[in-house]
């Protein structure tokens, strides 16, 4: 079946599949952990039960999404040793320490306080429970910090020297490794994307329940209205911030990875007197041209150089063997940008509805919010594809090629494990996702039950059977 297949391509597809599947969950839980901390803080401050109801509603969904994110992330670590052992050997001295820090600090912080956050409200008191919520939220953000630092180093490597005998990257300055040139921009852009992803999922769920009870608004709980209002505030505030962060991240990419920007823009030819912004086209990499191009003259130079007549180099200045796959980068970038502006449009629409006093009774707005619920997940995947495919043909940009990073495996071995991953992932995580959607399909109730109250029975661990409690109605001895 895989006799004619390329082992390198299959290894890339396998890692792309697993990392894409995994990234959906952290993109949701990073924002959701912070949202839960805010809800818990508002409950302690205002003593308004709608915030407690919302916390209890979303914490169950968070627990499932967090668990699936952890399990799907473990698989990627193994792939560094199975499919990408050469990369692990050569880059390990640099990236090994930050990845270990992520486990020892961020993940331990999340895992250590997760149980208290889920079940400890009545056991440790409100102050310690709030600290646990903040610890989990901080742990998810810290985890993003370390992982994005490693990933950014692969794009803009710094603080290292090459060992000429072993070919290994040896750290010379860990501050430069961690805070490499693209890291601050990628961190801000990615974390903001996670917050927007959560906001649109929360807003979509609230809008769904508002639509279901649009003819009986008295049946809509205060928690549902608050949930929609908070989500729309996030959309209105953070969507324009994200567009701004994306712009400055693009300028940083132009400085350090110009070939990626050329692929994003579809610039096969250099433009000495101002480059157009192509809205659409079909990249023809074999012929080095953009077919059926539709563009706005000189706008790309204005965006990237802040000058209509600024010259921009094209892919004709990059050797063919060093060019990324233009078609994938070109279309993924446009999907991400289109969704970003759609988010901005919905945020502005919600502000108009709020001003008109129709935030909770405008069915068209609510239908748009439901439609946009998964938009953040699609946008982060499109952005991730733009970033990672745009780095090709290198794993460590400019220093280590992807073809030189792969393990010496046959295509049959990689292909068979890829098929196994696809089957298992869709079975296991498909069931988990279905259950999350089932939880979202019911609205938050007044006096929403706790995690332990929602369970059918006590948890059984290591084969032990809990003692059945009986309640006496008469004093002992009678």
UniProtKB/TrEMBL annotation:
It comes from Paracoccus tibetensis. It comes from the Bacteria. GO terms for cellular component: cytochrome complex; plasma membrane. It is found in: Cell inner membrane; Cell membrane. Keywords: Cell membrane, Electron transport, Heme, Iron, Membrane, Metal-binding, Transmembrane, Transmembrane helix, Transport. It is a multi-pass membrane protein. This is Cytochrome bd-I ubiquinol oxidase subunit 1 apoprotein. Residues 448-478 are annotated as: Disordered. Belongs to the cytochrome ubiquinol oxidase subunit 1 family. The chain crosses the membrane at residues 23-45, 57-80, 100-120, 127-148, 192-211, 223-245, 328-352, 364-385, 418-437. GO terms for biological process: aerobic electron transport chain. The keyword S-adenosyl-L-methionine does not apply. GO terms for molecular function: electron transfer activity; heme binding; metal ion binding; oxidoreductase activity, acting on diphenols and related substances as donors, oxygen as acceptor. Residues 462-478 have a biased composition (Polar residues).
């Amino acid at each position: 079946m895989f006799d004619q297949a390329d082992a390198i391509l299959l290894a890339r597809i396998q890692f792309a599949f697993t990392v894409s599947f995994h990234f959906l969950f952290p993109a949701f839980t990073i924002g959701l952990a912070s949202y839960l901390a805010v809800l818990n803080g508002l409950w302690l401050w205002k003593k308004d039960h709608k915030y407690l109801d919302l916390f209890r509603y979303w914490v169950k969904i968070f627990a499932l999404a967090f668990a699936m994110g952890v399990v799907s992330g473990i698989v990627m670590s193994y792939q560094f040793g199975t499919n990408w052992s050469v990369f692990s050997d050569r880059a390990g001295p640099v990236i090994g320490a930050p990845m270990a820090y992520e486990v020892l600090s961020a993940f331990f912080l999340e895992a250590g306080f997760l149980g208290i956050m889920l079940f400890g409200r009545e056991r440790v008191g409100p102050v310690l429970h709030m600290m646990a919520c903040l610890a989990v939220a901080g742990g998810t953000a810290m985890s993003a910090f370390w992982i994005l630092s490693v990933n950014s180093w692969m794009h803009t490597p710094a603080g290292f020297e090459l060992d000429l005998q072993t070919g290994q990257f040896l750290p010379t300055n860990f501050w430069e490794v961690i805070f490499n040139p693209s890291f601050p921009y990628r961190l801000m852009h990615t974390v903001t994307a996670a917050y927007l992803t959560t906001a649109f999922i929360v807003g979509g769920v609230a809008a769904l329940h508002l639509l279901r009870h649009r003819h009986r608004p008295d049946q809509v709980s205060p928690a549902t209205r608050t949930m929609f209002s908070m989500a729309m505030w996030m959309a209105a505030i953070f969507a324009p911030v994200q567009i701004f962060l994306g712009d400055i991240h693009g300028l940083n990419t132009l400085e350090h990875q110009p070939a990626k920007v050329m692929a994003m823009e579809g610039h096969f030819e250099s433009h000495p007197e101002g480059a157009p912004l192509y809205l659409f086209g079909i990249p023809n990499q074999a012929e080095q041209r953009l077919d059926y191009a539709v563009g706005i003259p000189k706008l790309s130079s204005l965006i990237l150089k802040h000058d209509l007549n600024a010259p921009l180099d094209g892919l004709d200045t990059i050797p063919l063997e060093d060019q990324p796959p233009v078609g994938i980068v070109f279309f993924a970038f446009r999907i991400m940008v289109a969704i970003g502006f759609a988010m901005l449009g919905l945020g502005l629409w919600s502000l108009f509805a709020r001003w008109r006093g129709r935030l909770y009774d405008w069915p068209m707005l609510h239908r748009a919010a439901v439609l946009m619920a998964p938009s953040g997940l699609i946008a982060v995947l499109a952005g991730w594809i733009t970033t990672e495919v745009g780095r090709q043909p290198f794993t460590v940009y400019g220093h280590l090629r992807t073809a030189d990073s792969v393990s010496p495996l046959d295509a049959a071995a990689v292909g068979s494990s890829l098929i196994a991953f696809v089957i298992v992932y869709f079975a296991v995580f498909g069931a988990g996702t279905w259950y999350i959607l089932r939880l979202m399909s019911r609205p938050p109730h007044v006096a929403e039950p706790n995690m332990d109250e929602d369970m059918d029975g006590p948890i059984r661990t290591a084969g032990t059977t809990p003692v059945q409690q009986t309640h006496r109605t008469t004093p002992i001895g009678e």
